[in-house]
Amino acid sequence: xxxxxxxxxxxxxxxxxxxxxxxxxxxxxxxxxxxxxxxxxxxxxxxxxxxxxxxxxxxxxxxxxxxxxxxxxxxxxxxxxxxxxxxxxxxxxxxxxxxxxxxxxxxxxxxxxxxxxxxxxxxxxxxxxxxxxxxxxxxxxxxxxxxxxxxxxxxxxxxxxxxxxxxxxxxxxxxxxxxxxxxxxxxxxxxxxxxxxxxxxxxxxxxxxxxxxxxxxxxxxxxxxxxxxxxxxxxxxxxxxxxxxxxxxxxxxxxx
Length: 256
Known about the structure:
about 260 residues; alpha/beta; UDP-N-acetylmuramoyl-L-alanine:D-glutamate ligase; 9 strands; globular
C-alpha cells in the first residue's frame, strides 16, 4: 500500500499513522511525503510543503519498483502538490482511497483555501473512494449534516458529482457513530459511541486501513467494515498520551 500524505511529528496521524496501520494489518507500506508538520496533541505548530519535484520522484520511485495494490492519499495542502500527484497517478489502475484532510482533530487548518478547488478537480477524479468526515462533507457539498439521513444525501451528492464510492464518517454532530457508505447502494456501519477524547489521527487511520484491506483483496464494502472495526478497537483500547487530544493505539491488534 502506498500512502501519499503529510508527516506528523507526534506520530498519531499522517504518514506515521498510515505506516503503523498497514503494518498492524499485515500490509507492507511505502510512502510519499507531501509536507512536514510540527504538531502534537494540542495542535499544529508549523507546516512546510516539500518541493513538488521530490514529491513526484517519491511517487515515481515507488510505482516503478514496488507497484502498490492500493493507494491512500491524505494531507495535500497546495495546488502544486495536488497537480503533481494527479500527474504521477495518471496511469495507476488500482484502488485509490482519498481522505480529504482539511482540518486536524485539534481544529487546526491543514488545507489551503486555494487547494480546495484543485483537490476536487484533479484528485477526486483519480479516486475510487472518498472518506470525508461530516465537517468535510458539509464543505464539499454545501449541505448541513445533522442526522444520518443527511449523511446519506451528502454521500449520494458526492458520488453523483465525482463518480466515486463515498464514505461519510459519523460522530461529528449526529450523536451517533454511524458511517454511511454509498457505492450505488446505501450501507450503514455503526458502533457504540466511546467516551474517549483521544481520537487524533482517526481519519488517517481509517482511510489507510481501508486501503490496506483493499490491498489484501477485500471488496470495498468489506474493507470499509473491517477498517471501522479496527479503528473502533484502537480507540477503545484507551491509549492516553499528551496534554491534548491524544492518538489511538494502532498496534492494538498486534498486541492481542
